[in-house]
Amino acid sequence: MSGHEFSYTQERLRELAQAVIDHARKLGASACETDVSEGLGQSVTVRRGEVETIEYNRDKGIGVTVYLGQRRGHASTSDFSLDALRATVEAALSIARFTAEDSAAGLPDAQLLARETPDLDLFHPWHLPVEEAIDLARRCEQAAFAVSPLVTNTEGASVSAQQSQFASANSLGFMGGYATTRHYLSCAPIVGKGDHMQRDDWYSGHRDPADLASAEAIGDYAARRALSRLKARKLKTREVPILLEAPLAAGLIASFVHAVSGGSLYRKSSFLVDSLGKPVFPSCVRIDELAHLKKGLGSSPFDDDGVATRDRCVIDGGVLQGYFLSTYTARKLGMETTGNAGGSHNLIVAPGALDFRGLLKEMGTGLLVTELLGHGINYVTGDYSRGAAGYWVEGGEIAYPVQEITVAGNLRDMFRGIVAIGNDVVVRGAKQVGSILIERMTVAGN
Predict the structure, then answer these.
(1) Nearest CA to 240 among 73, 394, 66?
(2) Is 2's pLDDT higher than 70?
(3) Who's near 110: CB < 8 A, 6+ residues apart?
(4) In the chain, N or C: fewer CB atoms in 10 Å?
(5) pLDDT per position as a tens digit, 222-259
(6) pTM above 0.85, yes or no
(7) In what side-by-side order are the strands of the sheet with 431-432?
């Protein structure tokens, strides 16, 4: 990556953060918090062997939140000069003066703040010259074309190397920050001709470039996925078991997180309001949140409020053990923060005994879903309806591909209707889960 060095040291970011806190105090703020960050990266896309895009990004910013009692104001700037910092603090204070008091507003309790920043092995810069990035993308795409003459085109193969760092501070004495990286390699082949064309994609994403799948493996697998979708059929409307492939199963877990997060709960806009201590999943389901997982894409020693994070069990024996709360949403609910300002950390769903083929055999006859389209989820009622594509399964074996269908149900029933969770975990995000077999959903087609 060209120009891979940060423009500022971590020490300098902390100096800027402290300057913001000091100026806010001087101007009469009762409390203040700030985040100072910078990021840079490089992305390359190759299509049909030719370079389609080369993008370099470098950005920085400072966000300032001040409190006048329980009135809150926020402002931000990308200018790191001392005059700009002071002007940003003053703008935040001006906003705070005109906002209504909010009894939940304010900094976390001091005893909850992180006092240490353990090394979670999150920073692995990829010093990738643009020529090597182009070569990597070409190899990925060439591997897709090499699978079959039916691979006629691609939407491109892409390589991205990104790194960022930040410093976070507040007027209670909290100061923390660190650097992180995130890199990925992807390919999206197109197969067939005329009216009989299909596409699919695959990618690998990690903190450490050494953990990425090889370019050739990604291109090859993406092409085979696309080829397997040729001659897709429609289905007649029916109710059948559904097997969500592992990457889509992670999305189902994300829906669970949304439903039990503080913002949804205090607004009463979730079908899982007042579910703490109650069964949400079958007894076979366990979900742990591991905030300190080495190299984890959701790892952090503290949340966006500066509150120390900790490992915990979220679902045990199917029963909900804890919500996902920030300082603000916890106060709105009369509870204590769970260290989830900014969202959940690494969620690990305990795998079952079956691999992917075992899940197909367990399902017997039903629908394997490998793609979901649209955003048809109503979190107030739990109603779920999304366009889908995948494969019809008979006798535990894939029979043929299907497309132009809709899968529908209710998240409450889907969660409780989980029959099995596979051990075919695909690690490329902050939610790690194998494929999920659901007892029954409606498949709408012809």
Answers:
(1) 394
(2) no
(3) 172, 173
(4) C
(5) 999 999 999 999 999 999 999 999 999 999 999 999 99
(6) yes
(7) 319-320, 312-316, 287-290, 346-349, 431-432
119 pLDDT more than 70:
yes
Q: How far apart are CA 244 and CA 431, in angstroms?
A: 15
Question: Residues 148-167: what's their mean pLDDT?
Answer: 97
Instruction: Give the pLDDT confidence score for residue 405 in this predicted structure.
Output: 95
The candidate with the shortest Cα–Cα distance to 323, out of 307, 308, 310, 339, is 339
3-state secondary structure the chain: CCCCCCCCCHHHHHHHHHHHHHHHHHCCCCEEEEEEEEEEEEEEEEECCEEEEEEEEEEEEEEEEEEECCEEEEEEECCCCHHHHHHHHHHHHHHHHCCCCCCCCCCCCHHHECCCCCCCCCCCCCCCCHHHHHHHHHHHHHHHHCCCCCEEEEEEEEEEEEEEEEEEEECCCCEEEEEEEEEEEEEEEEEEECCEEEECCEEEEECCHHHCCCHHHHHHHHHHHHHCCCCCECCCCEEEEEEECHHHHHHHHHHHHHHCEHHHHHCCCCCCCCCCCCECCCCCCCEEEECCCCCCCCCCCECCCCEECCCEEEEECCEECCCECCHHHHHHHCCCCCCCCCCCCEEEECCCCCCHHHHHHHHCCEEEEEEEECCCECCCCCEEEEEEEEEEEECCEEEEEEEEEEEEEEHHHHHHCEEEECCCCCCCCCEECCCEEEEEEEEECC
Which of 229, 198, 200, 202 lies closest to 215, judged by CA? 202
Task: Please state, rounded to an integer, the average pLDDT across all residues of the chain.
Answer: 96
Place of tokens 């800027």: 16
CA distances for 12 relative to 17, 80, 115, 179, 274, angstroms: 9, 11, 20, 13, 45
3-state secondary structure 131-162: HHHHHHHHHHHHHHHCCCCCEEEEEEEEEEEE
Tokens read off for 197: 């064309």
Judged against a pLDDT cut of 70, whether residue 3 lies above it is answered with no
For tokens 């291109």, the residue is 219
Instruction: For the beta carbon of residue 97, count every other beta carbon within 10 angstroms.
Output: 10
| CA angle in degrees (0–180, nearest 5) for 170-171-175 | 40
Main-chain phi, psi angles of 130, to 5 degrees = -60, -35
180-189 average pLDDT score:
98
Answer whether 369's CB lies under 8 Å from 390's CB.
Answer: yes
